[in-house]
Amino acid sequence: MRDNGQVTSATAQPKTPGFPQFSTSLERGDSPVTPPRLIATDLDGTLLRDDKSVSPRTVAALAAAEEAGIEVFFVTGRPARWMDVVSDHVHGHGLAICGNGAAVVDLHGGAGAHRFVKVRELARQNALDAVRLLREAAPGTVYAVEQTYGFNQEPAYPKLHMEIPDVRAPAEELLAPGGLADDEPVLKILAHHPELDPDAFLTLARLAIGTRANVTRSSPSALLEISGPDVSKASTLALCCAERGISHEEVVAFGDMPNDIEMLTWAGRSYAMGNAHPDVLTAASGRTVANNEDGVAVVIEKLLSRLP
Known about the structure:
The protein has ten helices and 13 strands. It is α/β, with parallel strands linked by helices. The chain has an eight-stranded mixed sheet with strand order 5-4-3-2-1-11-12-13. A five-stranded antiparallel sheet has the order 7-6-8-10-9. Helix 4 (124-137) packs across helix 6. It is globular, with a radius of gyration of 18 Å.
């Protein structure tokens, strides 16, 4: 999750039929192969501008997509309590995928009244194993624990988020069954290192933790997000699409950071933002302009203009 509201992932892809690589770059102006039925967009660095606002042009594009019968899903690393930034822009179903796929949340209740529709928690033993293995591989790592409603952290964890933790204690005490934070499911662990390069830290953590958890990142700093072994934006989006009878070929996805990569490679068409991480630019089938230039709206407008 980004500092003050960002997030990322690396699990096995959802099991879906193979799909062709679409040629979707805006420069070529190719026509869609399959009419879109769902738009899945990341928030920070993607839909939101750097000041965390949703531009009037983007608001209009999202509304037009919904009016055309295309569902819009916000798919983010943010926790549910940080979704007020887009709560005024939900249409129809009102659902969002939060915590890098760890929760599906109904935003209709408004600020402070979000309802959890689906929770894909990180088992406490897996979480404890991940903490132990990463401590051994990267001494100096400090942790925070994200739960459905609560946020807890180690005393040395830096002030990266605009909130006061409920409890400050070692991660082992926060995660222990019957421990200090045993009243809610664990959605993910945040792991911060004060010195390591962010991409190097991600690679090291994935090697150390292996299949016990999914490790990703969305922050420009060395801040990792650790979720359940099969939990990612892509896997939860695939579940939501299956419930609606929507195939991956009918999904258009947008993102900018490593936690978006699985989603971008799973979707039939995907767009990396002009400001995206190099790995995201490689993973996506198309590219749009930067978030501050309304890159999501640019693509949606083009897609809608080509509908019958």
